[in-house]
Amino acid sequence: MTRVKLDWVAYAAYQVTDLDLMERFLVDFGMMRSARTETALFMRGTGAGHHIHVARLGDSSKFLGAAFTVATRDQLERAARIPGASPITAILDPGGGERVTLTSPNGHAIWIEHGVAKVPERTIRRSYRMNFASEHLRLNGTVRQRPEATPVLRIGHFVLWVKDAASEVEWFRTHFELVPSDYICAPGDPDPIVKATFLRYDCGQEYVEHHCILVSESKHFGCHHSSYEVLDLDAVVAGHEHLVSKGWTLDAGYGRHYLGSLIYDYWLDPFGNRIEHYTDTDLVNDDYKPVHFVGEAHETTQWGMAPPPSFFD
Ligand SMILES: [Fe+2]
Description:
313 residues, mainly beta, 2,3-Dihydroxybiphenyl 1,2-Dioxygenase, domain 1, ten-stranded mixed sheet, 37% strand, binds fe (ii) ion
C-alpha cells in the first residue's frame, strides 16, 4: 500500500471548559487569535497556517487529537483509503478545506487535512546571530531582547501517550511516510525495551527536523505535550520570563534535551496540558543513525531545569 506523504503538523486540538482562559494563556504563550466561534478557539502563529492550536468548549478538559496537512488532494484521497478512514468531508471550521478522520490503534484521532485557507505571515525580528569563540556571526550587530510574549512560529511536533507503543508506531509507519529518528528505552531491562519512538518525515537525503511525533508508552492516555517553534534562544528565555511574570505554571525549563538536542521550555496551560516552546532542533537525513537511549527522565536533559521523574509516567 502506498504511504501518505505528510506535509506538516497542522494543529493539536483540546477540549477545555473555558475558552477565554485558554486564549489568555495562549496569547501570553505567543499565539494570536485566528478565529473564534461560540464553541471553539483557533489560534495561529506567525506562519501561514490558519490555526496551529484548537480549543473546543466542553464540560471537561481532554486532548481531542492532532492534524497533519497534505500538499495535494491526491494524498488526501490516499489517506481516505487507509482501513477505517472516514470519507473525505468538508471542514466546517473557520479556514475550511477538507479532511479525513482516522483513529489510531490506541484510539487517538488523527486528522489529515487539505485545502485549509492560509493566512498572511506576520513579520518578526531576525534571529539573533551569535559570536562564538571560534566563529563570529554578529558583526556590527546588537542583541536587544526584552522579556515579552515570544512569537510562536508554528507547531513542530506532538507526543502521544499510548498503551501499546509498538502497534501505534507500526500504524504510523505503515500508512505514512515517517521514519524513526531515535528510541527511548526503559532502564533496568537486560535487553532495552523500546518505550518511545521519535518519528520524522521520511524525506531521504533531505534534512528534516528530528521528530514530528513521539509515540510514548504510558499509563496515561492523551497528549504528553504539543510543541511550538520559536525563533532562537533569546526568544525562548524572553518568553519564559514573560510567562513567569504572568503567573502561569512552569513545568520544566528551560534546558537542552539530549535526543533531538532541542532547547525546550515546558509550561502547563490552565487545564493542565503540557505545552512546549522549542528552538534549535537537530536536522537529520537518511545518514542519521538512530540511538537507543536508556535512562531516566532527567537524563534526557543536557543542561537547564530537568523534567521531574513523572515526565515519563
Ligand atoms: Fe517536545
